[in-house]
Write a structure and sequence with these properties.
Blueprint lengths: L2 H25 L1 E5 L10 E5 L6 H8 L5 E5 L7 H7 L3 E3 L6 H12 L3 E4 L16 H9 L3 E7 L18 E6 L14 H26 L2
Parallel strand pairs: 1-7, 2-5, 2-6, 3-4, 3-5
Antiparallel strand pairs: 6-7
Helix pairs in contact: 1-2, 5-6
C-alpha cells in the first residue's frame, strides 16, 4: 500500500465512521463503556466478539477512531463492493492464505491505524471460545497492542420490522477493555510463539467478555 493509498484508505475509514455513527445511534441505542481505553494514536488491533452481522458496523459507529475491518470476501458483492472499499474496509478470502489481505492489514498498522478483527473467524456464539491464529499473527508481527471489545445485545432477539436485525431503538452495549500485548516480550514469531500468543489472547478476551457481561448485566 502506497502512501497515497494509505491516506485515501484512512480518509475512507473516517467517512465510514461518520456513517456508522449516524446509522447506529439513529437506529439503536448504543451504550459505550471504556472507549477511553483505546490508545488515541498509533497502531491498535480491536479484537471483537462476533455473534451478529451488526457487530462490525456497531463498532465502526462507536469506536473513538476510524476502524479498518478484515471482512469476508462474500460481503463484497454488487454495490457493496465499491462502498466497503471506499470506506477503508479490507476484503479477505478465508478459504486460502490471503497474502493480499495480510499485506493490506499490516499496512494499516504500519501507518498507525486501527485494525478490526473478529478473532473467531466467523459469526458464532460470540464467546471467544475458538480463536484462529490470525489475531496472534498480526499482533506479533506488528507489535501493536490488542484492545478486547465485547458487543452485547445485538443477537438477543430479532426485530419486528426486520427480523435479521435487533429491534429498532433497542440497547446494544459495546465494552472496550484494557490494551495489552500478545507476545511474551521475546520478539519471537515462531509457530510455538504464535500458539502461545493465541492461548494468552483467548484467556484475556474471554476474561474481558466475562467482565463486560458483569458490568452490563447481559
Amino acid at each position: 500500500m502506497t502512501g497515497t493509498d494509505a491516506a485515501a484508505s484512512e480518509r475512507g475509514a473516517a467517512v465510514g465512521r461518520r456513517i456508522g455513527i449516524g446509522l447506529m445511534y439513529g437506529l439503536w441505542r448504543p451504550r459505550v463503556l471504556g472507549a477511553w481505553r483505546v490508545p488515541p494514536t498509533g497502531p491498535v488491533i480491536l479484537a471483537v466478539n462476533h455473534a451478529h452481522n451488526l457487530d462490525g458496523p456497531m463498532l465502526m459507529g462507536t469506536a473513538p477512531r476510524p476502524v479498518h475491518f478484515l471482512i469476508k470476501k462474500e460481503a463484497f458483492i454488487g454495490p457493496l463492493d465499491p462502498f466497503l472499499r471506499g470506506i477503508g474496509q479490507l476484503k479477505v478470502d478465508r478459504s486460502i492464505a490471503d497474502r493480499g489481505a495480510v499485506t493490506s492489514a499490516l499496512a494499516v498498522l504500519e501507518q498507525g491505524g486501527v485494525l478490526g478483527i473478529f478473532p473467531e473467524g466467523t459469526r458464532g456464539e460470540g464467546d471467544f471460545a475458538a480463536l484462529r491464529g490470525g489475531l496472534a499473527y498480526f499482533a506479533l508481527r506488528s507489535g501493536a497492542p490488542v484492545v478486547p471489545v465485547a458487543v452485547l445485545g445485538s443477537a438477543d432477539r430479532p426485530g419486528r420490522v426486520i427480523r435479521a436485525l435487533p429491534p429498532l431503538r433497542s440497547r446494544v452495549d459495546v465494552v472496550f477493555g484494557d490494551p495489552f500485548t500478545a507476545g511474551d516480550g521475546s520478539g519471537r514469531r515462531t509457530r510455538k510463539a504464535l500458539d502461545e500468543a493465541t492461548v494468552r489472547l483467548q484467556e484475556r478476551l474471554a476474561g474481558h467478555l466475562t467482565e463486560a457481561r458483569r458490568l452490563t448485566g447481559r
